[in-house]
Each structure stands twice: as C-alpha cells, then as structure tokens.
Amino acid sequence: MRVMASVVLFSAFVTTQAIAVEQAKPVGKPMRAATAPAVNAKVIAAPAGLDFGVVAPHTLLEGNFKLVNTSDKPLKVLGAQPSCQCTTIEITGKEIPAQASGVPGVLEVPVTMKVSATGIKTAQVKVVVEGEPLPITLDLRAEVAYAVRMAIADAAGNMQPFVDAADDASRLNGVAQIFSSDGKPFRVLSVQGAPPVFVNWNSQSDAPLAKYQVQFALVGEPCEMVPKYLLVETDRADARMIDARVRHACTRISPALEIAEFRCNAGVIAAGGAATFDIEIKKMGGNRIASVKAVDAKFAAELVGQRADGSSLLVTIRLTPGKEVKGVFMTAVHLIAADANGQPYMTQRPEAGAPGQPPKITTLPAEVDLLVYGKVE
Q: What are the average pLDDT values for consecutive 10-residue runs of the chain, which has 377 residues?
C-alpha cells in the first residue's frame, strides 16, 4: 500500500476565486537540504526538498519523496510532525524496507501541498524513524503569484511589487508595469476601481498586450484616506484582481493579532452573492476569535467557523456585499479575540510616546481589522 502524506498550506483561501482555466500541473524540482543529514544516518530523504517554482494561488501541488533505508533491517516510522496549517500525514507505523543484496529499501511518500495567498510559501515535515538520532526533514517551497503581476520602480529605480512612498509621498503618483507571467495577452480593466490610463497604448484601437504601463494617482491626505493597496482588475480568469502594497507613513500596520496575510482577495462576487474565505492567525494558543463585524454598514461579515492546529488558528469568514455595492471594493472586517474562558484576550503592543519619549507598552484587547477586496458584478 502506498503511503499518502498531505501537506496543506492555507492563508486566506478564497472559495470565490477559483481558477477557471486548465493549467499544466506544477512539478517539484529537487532542492538541497537546509541542514546536513545526521552523522551515521541510516535513512535519508530523496530528494531532501521540492521546489515547485512559481505557481498560481489556490493550486494543489503534488510531489513525491522517498525514504531510503541503507541498513540491513526494516525501520519503522515513529511519527511525522508538519509545520503548516491543515496538514494530514499518515506514515506513522509504516516500515521502510531493509537493504537487500546491496540495494537500499525505499518507502514512497507522496505529498500534496495546497497554497493560496501570494508570496513565498514553505512547509516542512519532520519524520522520526526508529534508531535515527535526529528527525528527517522534508522541505517544500513555492512562490505563489497570479498569472498577472505588477511592478513599480522604487526611489532607486529598481522594480518592486509595491509602491515605494514611505519617504516620499509624491511617489503615490506614478506608473505601474502590469504583465502576464506566461507572456499571453490580456486587458487591464480598471486601476483602483477607475478606467485605466495607459502609457503609449490605445485601448480603442490597439491589440491586447502581454505588458502594459499604467498610470496611478493615489489619495495622499487625509491620512486615513491613503490606500494600503493599489488594486488592478484584469480580464484574465486566473487573475481578475491583483494588488500592490502601498508603503507610506499612513499605511503602517501594527496588528494586535498575527494574521498571516492582512488582506484577502475575494475575487469577483456575483451580485447578491458572498465570498467565503479562511485566514490563518499565528501564535493564538488556546485563544479564539469571539466575533467578526464588517466595519462598513454596506457589508455584512459572519464568523462561519474556526479550528486550531498547534498554536495557529484557521478562521472561516463570509463577507456579503449589500445590494448597493457595485464594482471594485476594499473594506475592513473587524475581528475580536477571546481567551479560553470567553474573556477578552489581551496583548501588549507599543504605542507612540510623548514627543522626545520612547514608545510605551500598553496592554489592550486583541482586536484587528482585516482588509478584504474584490469586485461585485
């Protein structure tokens, strides 16, 4: 019987943003181990790690490891400890065959990893084998990105996946490059919810391109109006909405809860519909989310469920736009945490002190705003 191991990474999984086009299945390429095997190790992993390269959000990655036994007796797997959320591994108690006639024994270990939010995603599985002094580590890695990406020149002229306005507010106005990773032509439909303004391209007469230069002009004041993300809408089914972080003095995030991603891409929501998504909150221990509420009255937010995995918590939320919401939106959902006794979960965090004084540490209830963006059509 083949041993099945599933490594599942979740961070803001959005059920409404399903990829509607067929894509080639990503193949994990072997990569070196982060640490050397233990001296005199009888069992090694082959390969030590798998790198799936650049993959789309909401992709199920499938790879295969081998546990290779160079000893003359079968060795039992005593346990396997995953590092990531929503992981199932079923190899405890299985045996790695002994070496026979000089040929090492092999146990096949298929692995699946589900990735969601953009960025570098990694996972590890620590496998404990009888007689081995140290656990065997299986590493997985992928860069998660939409088929369409965005880049903006920073103050030094280097292209970055963010708006570099932290030290110069004038950089809230600029030009973004929007391009498809696979080189296929597409159309940019809106920038920050408004019709795009292209550089050297005419939307009425020119053929679609695989790369555009598009102007953007973000609000610079008052402070609360500065957007935390630049939003772009395209006609690609696998990248309807993408974003770029806006780095500015007014957009700093100092959360009371360690959410893995502080924004969630809800994709395109049908009129009258809703988006259901998961967010991962790290270092929660036995604490839970007591309630969620949409900050804007034009939306409704519902806490669908939550489950723990070690010290992390996976929270499922449903966001329902009101009938008056149309087009591109970004809104906040307010989360309040409670401890195991139902009392407010308190955390310590720094607050700005008086002029010339260092920040002071204040104990406050753990509450945080999660940004959710998408389009209603």
A: 37 37 76 76 93 87 92 93 65 93 92 79 90 91 92 95 94 97 96 97 96 96 94 95 94 84 91 92 90 97 89 90 96 95 84 72 86 96
> Which residues, other chains included, contact 13 with Cβ-Cβ below 8 Å and sequence gap of 6+?
58, 114, 116, 277, 278
Can 5-144 and 253-377 be said to share one CATH topology?
yes
341 contacts: CB under 8 Å, gap ≥ 6: none
- Tell me how far the alpha carbon of residue 216 is from its chain's centroid: 25
Q: Smallest Cα–Cα separation from 180: which of 252, 126, 239, 225? A: 239
Specify the pLDDT at position 255.
Answer: 79
Taking the CA atoms of the chain, what radius of gyration do you get in angstroms?
24
| Whole-number pLDDT of residue 319 | 98
Q: What is the CATH T-level fold of the domain 253-377, as seen in this structure? A: Immunoglobulin-like (2.60.40)
What is the rounded distance in angstroms from the CA atom of residue 352 to the CA atom of residue 357? 8
Tokens of 231: 């939003």
User: Please, what is the Cα angle at 348 between 347 and 349, to 5 degrees?
Assistant: 120
Domain parsing of the chain, residue ranges:
5-144, 146-252, 253-377
Kindly compute the dihedral angle of the four CA atoms of residues 266, 268, 270, 272, in this order, to the nearest 10 degrees: 30
pLDDT at 85 (0 to 100): 56
Torsion of CA 279, 280, 283, 286, to 10 degrees: 70
Give the pair of three-digit tokens for residue 167.
Answer: 């030290």
Determine the 3-state secondary structure of 150 from DSSP: strand
- The C-alpha atoms of residue 164 and residue 28 are separated, in whole angstroms, by 33
Across the beta sheet with 229-234, what order do the strands follow? 162-164, 241-247, 229-234, 188-191
For residue 376, how many other CB atoms are within 10 A of its CB? 20
Q: Is 20 left (phi over 0), alpha (psi -120 to 50) or beta?
A: alpha
Q: Which residue has the tokens 């959005």?
A: 14
- Is residue 109 classed exposed, middle or buried when 0-12, 13-18 and 19+ CB atoms within 10 A define those classes? buried
Helix (H, G, I), strand (E, B) or coil at 363: strand
Topology of domain 5-144, CATH: Immunoglobulin-like (2.60.40)
- The full DSSP string for 260-292 is S-SEEEEEEE-TT--EEEEEEEES-TT-EEEEE
Query: Element (H or E) spanning 295, and its range?
Result: none
